[in-house]
């Protein structure tokens, strides 16, 4: 099967994502990452498009399970109701705890979840990228906050960081966090 044919088969699957030719960039992650401080609720401030997150009031909540894995509860308000997806995250290499893997199904492999930077109390910048045969890659990026709204200069700082790591933000969009109900 030719690479072009394979690409044509895969394009509909990635149309709601952001993809680029070539392999994934390899950004630096948060040094001395502290998972315990990272746990809890984060609100999505902005993201590169993702087919699984099209609503508003998007948030993620991270907690340690008794087996040592991390429970990931993502929620969003979409089509007049709150939708929740539960996943599992793991630290893939204890020497680099800011490089996590996340899966939302027993049948899918862990996808990269790289914490590029966080101060644990207000801002987190996260990146994920998957190579498709090293021909192209599908990427996600999120700017997260501990509150639903961040100052514009904080958002700009996060965008500058992503750009400096070679991540194209042309398709990045702000997440609607207005009119949300807090639990």
Automatic annotation (TrEMBL):
GO terms for biological process: brain development; lipid metabolic process; lipid transport; response to reactive oxygen species; tissue regeneration. Residues 1-16 form the signal peptide. GO terms for cellular component: cytoplasm; extracellular region. InterPro entries: ApoD_vertbrte, ApolipopD, Calycin, Lipocalin_ApoD, Lipocalin_CS, Lipocln_cytosolic_FA-bd_dom. Pfam families: Lipocalin_2 (PF08212). PROSITE patterns: LIPOCALIN (PS00213). Residues 34-176 form the Lipocalin/cytosolic fatty-acid binding domain. GO terms for molecular function: lipid binding. CDD domains: lipocalin_apoD-like. It is found in: Secreted. Keywords: Disulfide bond, Glycoprotein, Lipid-binding, Pyrrolidone carboxylic acid, Secreted, Signal, Transport. It comes from the Eukaryota. Belongs to the calycin superfamily. Lipocalin family. This is Apolipoprotein D.
């Amino acid at each position: 099967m030719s690479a072009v044919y394979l690409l044509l088969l895969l394009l509909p699957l990635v149309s709601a994502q952001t993809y680029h030719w070539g392999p994934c960039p390899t950004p630096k992650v948060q040094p001395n990452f502290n998972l315990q401080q990272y746990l809890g609720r984060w609100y999505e401030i902005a993201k590169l498009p993702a087919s699984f997150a099209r609503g508003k009031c998007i948030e993620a909540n991270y907690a340690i399970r008794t087996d040592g894995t991390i429970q990931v509860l993502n929620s969003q308000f979409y089509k007049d109701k709150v939708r929740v997806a539960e996943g599992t995250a793991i630290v893939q290499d204890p020497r680099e705890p800011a490089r996590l893997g996340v899966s939302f199904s027993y049948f899918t492999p862990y996808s990269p979840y790289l914490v590029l930077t966080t101060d644990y109390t207000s801002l987190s910048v996260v990146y994920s990228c998957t190579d498709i045969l090293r021909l192209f890659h599908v990427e996600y990026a999120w700017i997260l906050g501990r509150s639903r709204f961040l100052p514009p200069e904080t958002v700009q700082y996060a965008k500058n960081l992503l750009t400096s790591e070679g991540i194209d933000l042309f398709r990045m969009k702000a997440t609607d966090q207005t009119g949300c109900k807090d639990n």
